[in-house]
């Protein structure tokens, strides 16, 4: 036992003082092998190296905690090689500089890949835990530091690249492949290297270049060719980016070109004398306009610049158009002119301005602006329609009719005083219907439908009533003749149109004295009608009728005369007398003086239609004149239509009258709107009422605030509303 | 010509023949990929590699079949080391276990703890590693379950841990009175180094605080949330950018809604809200709420206020928002699951609104014995997991049917569990041992 314990005492177990480590010399030796390999790789002698051995060596160094030595050795070796490469690149002459750089860059990349291969284990285990840069990234960083940012290379590289771009811009052909390789290198080195060493100076130089060039262009080019040049430059830059620059540079360089060539000269371009935007619009230069649109679209405020100039041009042109007294003489021509103007600019917007909504709106607002400058526009538009529906559309196909009507509807939409249009339309429609002059029932109805969809049922209910009346009248007449033909014998044929009061724009005029032959038939019809419809009243509108009469002139010339009812009354007098004074005619017929003068004028003073002879001969009718049956009347036509001298347009007093009627009609509408609003809001201040009323009525007309105020006052008088006791600006609704 | 494709290796004296097609599976970023690259004079009759032939054989089979079979004579750790040499470690990890499914889980490993008791939390890493918060230290394990350098936040009591990514762990710790330490910080999982701390400022004054429960917003959202208790009643939820560590927001506690003591935070992307559950408040009542950080409102909340509690009453002990964002699942002391509908307005009325499923009655379970741990909940891919005592239940389908039970170690009841990197980690209370469960790779046919 003793001896055993003794032995135990002697036997000492020592703890390891050091971790078992690789022989430091071994580490040095291993590194030498790897260092040599790196040299060989840079010298393109890698074929003699064994990858497995090198990989294992690097693995062992990391495994045995010589990762630091390995990494710092790598940095030192690579740096030394890069410094050598820098020298060789620096010494390259002139144009060979880039070639050399590119060549060396390719070599370095290949070497870097191989070095990373053998150091893969270090990259995987040593680098992440010791906050080092991975080998590949390290190789790129060292390349940036020692080659790209070497003082002898940095500026030279930048100048060379910029010089090549400049040469290409001035028409030289450069080696784009080489250029692409070099910019690709800068991108590979990191976006900040590309940006700082190339992109920023490139953009600066470009800005300078284009600022100068645009100045030069703008001095010597017209707007169209300037835009062509700008567009070409823009395309060139985009092409350049696609060939040898970073895709992200595209927006930057194009914005430089846009700023220098377009944004800085926008005003000057659009206003250029003889070739600016207005001239392009006048001459329909679709290509130039389209180019301007697409270029200006690229810069802020660009499109609004075009739009503003176009709008003010349109407004001015429209204003001249609608106030041109020459044009006002012919309403049809006037409206046609507006339509042509609209077509022209619609086409410009659709072909050159990409159907841009904002441009369409600008066009519409311009039309709205100037159409309403002339308060006769509603009348003229109705007259245009009247012309079209009377004869203009004869022989046109259904589609063509629709196109015309749609165009007119578009103008109609611009009108603020839609109720005025309605008034005129009603008058014109009445005339067309009563005289049977309308070309096509379908076209008429189609127009009514359009108005209805635009303005609602209320707007067209009376117009539709007119159509119903026409149909009823036709049926009534058929029935009348079927039942009464025996009694009527061979007296004059009567055609009555029964018009509902209120639907038609009739003026209450005293009936003239009808000739007895006609009067008999009329009485028979009255008896018949009142017999079938009880509780109605018939009034004859002799001012609106027509008559066909047969007349025999000297030498047995027979003619059929198509005249108005008034004219017929006058002519019938000459059955029993050869000559009559104005006063005698007036007394016998009781036709209102103004109408009588017109009708005598058309019977006696129109060449070729003068079935009466006037003494003394003169153009105008005076109350002292005497009229004779013109025995010598001849005409090559059997049927002679004797029109009444009527102004197609309204005369000034008539216009005043219509205007007054419109104003009168507006009153109840404004009052109704006020009451509607107040009923729901109970209490409202004056300005809000005016705003709301305007809003409610603007689809029909623009009410005048003064008129609204008057209507409010009238409503207060009639105790629909009252003023608030405390606040005089407030109105209260009285239920 | 067919020989062109053939490659011969002499690995540690043993000959292998394979094809370059097979080796291509290793990828260019591996040692074998580089070896055969054209820059390194390929086409030699034979490549010599000075490594272990048995491991090479296993790895070659992995490249051939995509499946990993480790022969009994090859120690796993050795194989991992060899895989690292060849740059094939990720291949090995990918083949070691399959996609996660709660119903196919097998016990992969049990890792003994460092000290008994006191385990606070376990979290699975996105790559299959994990970390265990134990007292004032966090033990970190890589996916091979090797322990790395432990990390600590000045040896404060750790409250919660979480992975920002496989290599970044965030820790919240209790403040030590008078020291101005504690708080919250990010560490490197690999080296245990401190990356940065998260600070709290109130009125531009930096303050010390105790950080509690953690939640991360998600993949593209860099926000991280934590419940915070400050010295001067500065209670609430702090919000930081986890990349920069900058505080971006602070949600101060509203009266009646305790946030600074919250036990569970969960970001709900579909609602753009943060769920906060305070289940063990010092005073007041249980509170679960959704916070809208944009307008600092609480669009939805639930509380058990107003219920007179006695011991038999069901208490909500853990809560988790379901993945569809329509409901919150809760659990009580009898292992009953309950659901609160998030879509039905403000169900503030006294603990009603929980739809309990009475599993306890069905299973005739006893009232849990003393010293047990509170139950916890987790969700993954539509499956719901709950731990109670020493087992984990897996519920599947929209009706949450119990489909599997996981029970294994002898370390007492489970105090926390976590799912991450297609693995489930369960931490046991007594021995601090943790079990690792994963699903096997796809079967052969």
From TrEMBL, chain A:
Q: Which domain of life is it from?
A: Eukaryota
Q: Which Pfam families match?
A: Cullin, Cullin_AB, Cullin_Nedd8
Among PANTHER family, the record links this protein to:
CULLIN
- Please tell me the species this chain comes from: Rhynchospora pubera
- Keywords attached to this entry: Isopeptide bond, Ubl conjugation, Ubl conjugation pathway
Q: Which family does it belong to?
A: Belongs to the cullin family.
The record's annotation in InterPro entries points to:
Cullin, Cullin-like_AB, Cullin_homology, Cullin_homology_sf, Cullin_N, Cullin_neddylation_domain, Cullin_repeat-like_dom_sf, WH-like_DNA-bd_sf
Task: List GO BP terms, alphabetically.
Answer: ubiquitin-dependent protein catabolic process
The Cullin family profile domain, residue ranges:
376-604
Origin organism lineage: Eukaryota, Viridiplantae, Streptophyta, Embryophyta, Tracheophyta
Q: Tell me a Gene Ontology molecular-function term this record carries.
A: ubiquitin protein ligase binding
Q: What is this protein called?
A: Cullin family protein
TrEMBL record, chain B:
Tree of life domain:
Eukaryota
- A single Pfam family it belongs to is Beta_prop_At2g24240
Task: Name a single GO biological process.
Answer: protein homooligomerization
Show the coiled coil region(s): none
InterPro entries referenced in this protein's UniProt entry, alphabetically? Beta_prop_At2g24240, BTB/POZ_dom, SKP1/BTB/POZ_sf, T1-type_BTB, WD40/YVTN_repeat-like_dom_sf, WD40_repeat_dom_sf
- Looking at the record, the residues that make up the BTB domain are 5-104
Protein name, per record = BTB/POZ domain-containing protein
Q: Which organism is it from?
A: Rhynchospora pubera
